[in-house]
Amino acid sequence: MLGGLDVGLMIRSVPYLAEGALVTILLTVVSVSLGMIGGTILGMARLSSNRIAYTLSSAYVGFFRGTPLLVQIFLVYMGLPGLHPGLSIDRWTAGILTLSLNSSAYVAEIIRAGIQSIDRGQSEAAIASGLTPRQRLRYVILPQAFRRIIPPLGNEFIAMLKDSSLVAVIALEELLRRSQLVVTRTYKPFEIYILTAMMYLVMTTCIAWLVSVIEKRFQPGIDGRRSSEHAA
Questions:
Q1: Averaged pLDDT score across all residues of the chain
Q2: CB atoms within 10 A of CB 102
Q3: CB within 8 Å of 34: residues ≥ 6 apart
Q4: Fewer Cβ close by (within 10 Å): the C or N end of the chain?
């Protein structure tokens, strides 16, 4: 005990909670990865001149950004099976599916904004060079847009890591759910939840650092500036 704080309990709980943290990271990585695939498609559809594609993608983004993630989890885990008696969705499938669908909506807006931020002159120069629309997108627009969307994608990753705690409501044993289980056994909520908060803080800090490294790596001209500095 340290000033009423059961440090021993916190130390003993670290391995058990660390397993839950690994589940949290796995949920986040899989969900955001799938979200990037879906979000890229949706983002392109949001920029499409096809009215059907634009309308459907806009409705999707509007729904998942405009409703609480907790409600979406209940809709997938309990709502979808209710539509068909033989349909059953396990906790893992429901958690990953819901988080991926939600992430797709936010990534779609990140992709759309990144592409729209590219100066129109870049496209005009690509057209003058004789590139096809697909080539312009692949070799000119997307590489530049990717550098600009790294920070918001990092923010989405951090947000999803924290939001993944909501799957605790369907008893999926990620970090928060395991914390709740320990609290029910020990009746020491402060020690366990402060430890949980610290573990989330470590994970988000590591992600922020990694995003910063990637952003510097893809920052245009940085190698040239360093070379000039060394030469001077």
A1: 89
A2: 23
A3: 96, 100, 103, 104
A4: C
